[in-house]
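User: I'm preparing a small set of examples for a lab meeting where we compare how different chains pack in three dimensions. I only have the primary sequence for this one, and I'd like the structure in token form so I can line it up with the others. Please keep the answer compact; I'll paste it straight into my notes.
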Amino acid sequence: MAYRCNVANGKCPDCFCNELLNGSAHLRLNTNKIRFCQLIFLYCSARLAISQPIDGVPFLIKKVLHRVFRDTTTELTEDRKVEHEAKHADIDAMFPVPLDDPLSPVSLTRLAPNPDESWPTSTSWLGGPPRLGEAPWPTDEFGQHLHHLASISLAELAPLLPPDMVPDTGALSFFVGSGERGNMKSRVIHVAGTTDSAFPVPMPGRGEIFGECERSAPEGLDRYPIKLSPEPWLNKDRDKSHFEAFKIWKSEFEVGRVPMYWDSAYKLLYGLKRVLDESLISRSIEANEKLIGIWQSRLDEAETEQARAFPRKNLENHRLVLDALKTKLGEYRIFVSAVEDKVLKYKRWEEMVPADVDWLRDTFSQLAFNGNSEPDRNTSFGAIYKLGTGFLHNADRAAAQTYDSLVRGPAPVVSKLPSRILEFLEFSPGFAPIQGRHQMFGTGLDIQGDFAFYADHYLLLQVEYDQGAGLRIGDCGTIQYVIHPDDLAVQNWGAVKAIFAGH
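Assistant: Understood. Below is the structure token output for the 503-residue chain.
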């Protein structure tokens, strides 16, 4: 792992960076170190003044930049060569020595609902309540309750690891709170409870960590059962397979050979109700008032009719939204209540009859809002409904979202999909997350380089962005819990650190 600087020539011409991207072999660095060097290269190539503060750069990178690149443009005396070589040697010292054996990964696979729509029992699960027994629900330093992310049965985990590495009784409960990239508030507790613990009041909103989403778990129960196994995760053109399967489904749906489910209406109802948040409404009113002023100014400043067209359209749209928010909210609430009364009469995965599909399409027509593209079709309800992010515009898009939930969830009716789709998906219970897998031990994802700083730690748990389980972690991100071997040997769960990274 030694780093060899070419100071023997009397200079150090960007020894980190020079020829790095051209494949120079004089940098004997592992993958994480190369990524680290490339990050430094970006800052150097931007010609940042090393003597000035470099805000937003991790402390270690600041330290390396200040200590290593200070003399890269000056002639070096023999004494300075020795000193400069010592500075470069510090770089290796900043990286932990990777574990000789990070152990074989243990895959955590979500289980599918049973054909009767019940959920299988399991001793390990994502989400849901933990089983704390006598232990209190963990909080952060401000007294705010942490979210329960997973409970892992040690009786299920221990046989998959070397002897005596973890206890074989009880469970590890993983909790997480908000935090900055690379450092999240977290707790890991060894618990021995046998019954579900009640959620404390108040619990913080999920949106700050996991994003707003409509969960597809059983009503009132956010638990997703999982199984632990040593089986490797095979990512065989997974995204391509999903896309091809979706194309088949779309062609079948368009000719009426696959049904529409009430899940589509549930998704619509979720979007309708989400907009009724009072803080969202007040923020939207304030924002539209400001935008009206901005576009009015641009309209006044425009000198030609062609230049006035765009600000005039935007001005009309924002006035419609503002008027709807101030005068139509009462009618909108009545509309949402009527939709809710109808939708809740049906189970999520019950098939819609043609009359129900017509009702859904008519409901969407009352929510039309296409901005400047089709201003004549814009409606007051649509102006309010558009305030929610990720809302659905029409019944076909809702059906497509339902398909995504169906295959990723997976839903209990997945077996009713055409056989051509099932063959393409190579369906098995418990679809994997988007880019990696839920796992314990092994080598985890290193999205932004933060994981490199814990190369001498075991990966205790990795939970991936998993829309099917309502875990929308950042921008296709991951939450990883790491523990040093010395702490694992004495079961010091309080020493576990949580890392968050996204794209």
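A couple of notes for your slides: Confidence is low (pLDDT under 50) at residues 1-35, 41-73, 216-221, 427-434. The beta strands are 106-110, 124-126, 147-153, 171-180, 183-191, 224-229, 439-440, 458-464, 478-483, 497-501.

User: Perfect, thanks.
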